Amino acid sequence: MRIGVDIDGVVSDSYPVWLQELNRHYGKNIAVIDDYDMHLTFDVPPEDMNDFFVGNVERLLMMPEPIPGAKEGIETLLQEGHEVIYITARTPDQKDLTIQWFKMREIHHEHVLFTGFDSKVDFVKQWGIEAFIEDYQVNAKLISECGIPVFLLDTTYNQEELPTGITRCHNWDEILKGIQGLNP
After folding, report:
1. Which of 56, 81, 119, 156 is the most exposed place for a label (fewest CB within 10 A)?
2. What's the pLDDT tens digit per position in 67-100?
3. CB–CB of 72/172 below 8 Å?
4. C-beta separation of 158 from 8 below 8 A
5. What is the pTM of this model?
6. How many angstroms separate the CA atoms of 175 and 171, rounded?
7. d(Cα 82, Cα 176) in Å, to the nearest integer?
8. What dihedral angle (degrees, nearest 10) is formed by the CA atoms of 62, 8, 116, 1?
């Protein structure tokens, strides 16, 4: 099976690092990112948040460690004969840093697609994705509307009620069980 996998919040434990760096930058002490649009959490214009990320991109992409169980989960998927295709909202100019991060953590990364904040749906269709692992509820809904099962990794910013076709998972073990359940 071809499995689409997001990177930030699914493989890379980006958000705790980003929260720490954003608190330092904005002089705040926010404990939890409760909105995927982090500029809302920090009460700053989206342009300011974008400028911060652009100016600190290397540190922000390279510092995070893998989500617990992600590396092993990906290895399990590959051992079970699945194909893993990363589909990320990162921009194409972040490709070198992204590949470097995968290499440093020794995580398989044969196919990495960069949407540049465009919809992931076109990439999902083009690559024939049969299941998807995501953390952003908007993407999960759009992908599931295409008839593709989505496994949503539980976070503080995706607590809305889930429609049919999306399964909330609290860790990579639950993701693996869900994917194994798709193959009778």
Report:
1. 81
2. 999 999 999 999 999 999 999 999 999 999 999 9
3. yes
4. no
5. 0.95
6. 7
7. 11
8. 120
The amino acid occupying position 131 is A
Helix (H, G, I), strand (E, B) or coil at 151: strand
- Provide the token pair at 108: 């398989």
Q: Which residue has the tokens 């869900």?
A: 178
Hunting for tokens 């997001």 — which residue is that?
Answer: 6
Q: Which domain holds residue 162?
A: 2-13+65-182
Q: Rounded CA gap, 152 and 170, in Å?
A: 8
CATH number at residue 127: 3.40.50.1000
Cβ–Cβ under 8 Å, residues 81 and 179: no
Tokens of 181: 């359940």
Q: Tokens 């699914």, residue?
A: 10
d(CA 61, CA 65): 10
Asked whether residue 184 carries a pLDDT value surpassing 80, the answer given is no
- Tokens describing residue 4: 């689409």
Above 70 in pLDDT, residue 150?
Answer: yes
H helical segments located in the chain: 14-26, 38-42, 46-55, 57-62, 70-79, 95-104, 121-126, 137-144, 172-182
What are the two backbone dihedrals, phi and then psi, of residue 175, each rounded to the nearest 5 degrees? -60, -50
103-136 pLDDT tens trace: 999 999 999 999 987 899 999 999 999 999 999 9
Final residue belonging to a domain, choices 46, 62, 78: 62
